[in-house]
Amino acid sequence: MYKIILVLVLLMGQSYHAFSQTDTLTIDVNKRYQVIEGFGGAMYYTAPALVAHPNKQKIYDYLFKDLGTTILRVCNQYINENGGKNTYLDAETSIALEANKRTPTDLMVSAWSPPPAYKSNHNISNYGTQASLDTNVNGQFVYGPYAKWWYNSLLQFQKRGVSVKYLSIQNEPNWPASYDACIFRPTEQVIYDDSLKKNVKVASYATAFSNVYDTIFKYKDSLIQVPKMIGPELIGIHRWYAPYTTDYTNKMDMSKCYGIAHHLYTGGNTSYANQFIPNLSYLNQYFPNKPRFQTEYSEGNWFFTAQLIHNSLFTEHASSYVLWTYAWNNNGSSLIDFDSGTDTTKWRNKNGYTITKKYYAVKNFSNFIKPGWQMIDITPSDTLIAASAFISPDSSQIAVVIVNNSGRQIKVNLNPIGFSIAKGDIYLTNSTYNCALAGAFNAKQNILPVSSVITYLLTRTPPLAIKEVKLKAIKENNKVICSWKVDASQINNFELQKSYDGTNFSTIATIYSNASNNYTYNDSINSVNIPSIYYRLKIVEKTNQTDFSTVSCISIGVSKRKILVYPNPIHNTIFFNGMGLTKVIISDESGKIILVNNTKAGSNQNCLTPNLRKGVYLLKLQLDNGETQTEKIIYQP
Question: Could you tell me the domains of the chain?
Fold first, then answer.
């Protein structure tokens, strides 16, 4: 009854706004774009204050459980290398541990400044100057010691119980900040320092990036998780604010860079989100094969924030959006604004914190679109509607987020292609409601209130009674033989898809159903300079619904491991690829054996769902030839 009343109130309360004609959103699940890495926020300057807050556990629940974010961005504050206190590092890792108690959370780390010993002014603050890396007695920049500091920093995070998934060597390397900073130019250059009124020499971002990557790779066996390096994380995306993103990337070894990171302080207007579109479009066009990460921005009100998140996802095809003011003290632009100190008489309310409207605008995205979901094609017939759509990895759910900036109520119909809607829920944020459940989805005549953000979470009609298709991939010489068998009477065709990272798949062949129900496809291996190849089938039913087979992974030539273990971190099931595996022994970090499991040595693909507690474990793999292999995994159920 409450849901029905809520919808009626929405209509009655805004009935004075004229309706447009009924608009249609056409959703095509067969046209897919970027895979989502996650949504998140940053903790740095106010991390110690949050850790000291009496109601921090409730704030953690709001941040990491209710909001649905999965990325925590922190500063590399390993400043005291000689045994001194690292207060900020301790606070940040404490928050990261709390996040992982509530939901699997990926840690993103950037440096504002290295320790003073590696800075040209011997201070972590730049004071508005172009202070860069220090040089040695020969006048050469200290790239090597700087890279080793980064590696040692990863060990410090690991020592405190967290691992870094995304690493950016420098926050805003093109901005001479008055606070913690370090200037890097695309190449080593002599530039004029306006503050110092003289020429200064600055270090090369490309060289520093490669040095950090190479050092981490050299010592990677000591790391539980090898981070994915992203960059160059400039202050903004304006193409005329030199040096620009491509000025940096054109000088970098991009094979070492997993994704493009940037902020949004240039390239748009905080009063009009669509002014960012030309520059966001440029990033999408220039870096089509790299995930894009918006790693810091919080300007504007709640509705502007929703519009800008949409533009980043829809125009840039960003894989991640990270807010700057996440949970901050006495900051009205943050998602959670908390009071400092333990003196409750000085708090602004009894809780000591306020959940802001911006929190709920972000929740309309972050609570429904999860890592691994993929953006799909959606075409509104009304250009004033900003809409984006995302599909779950198993294609069972779609999240449609609509930002109504038209100045009028709009009636909307959904026209899904390749997805039959069985049911759905509607979640609304506007001036009155905060990501509230506004009722069940209706296939026709859905109402978008004025200045609102609405999320449709849709569940598809179960696919036809087709047994799970299991794809087998076997490597023979310079080819991979993919085979499967299934009763295809209800299937139109199969699309064989291929991936080199297990996430981003592309179709390499379309095979139509036949009477024998046996299928084979030979894929040539053009290069051995890759550790593994992943295959899956996209199954297109005669009703145009689609489904996916299990993923089959094969090891190629680079990896020296006989058995490939993936993914890592592991959320549920561990997969083992390679012949000869007979036994898996799982131990905790102390060496205590937790589980022993026998496997089929003659099978190329094995899996295990161990039902472990969250933590770090050692896997000892026994092979049929007497050899053993040891792997370290992170288990995050």
Answer: 2-33+374-460 (2.60.40.1180), 37-366 (3.20.20.80), 463-559 (2.60.40.2060), 561-637 (2.60.40.1220)
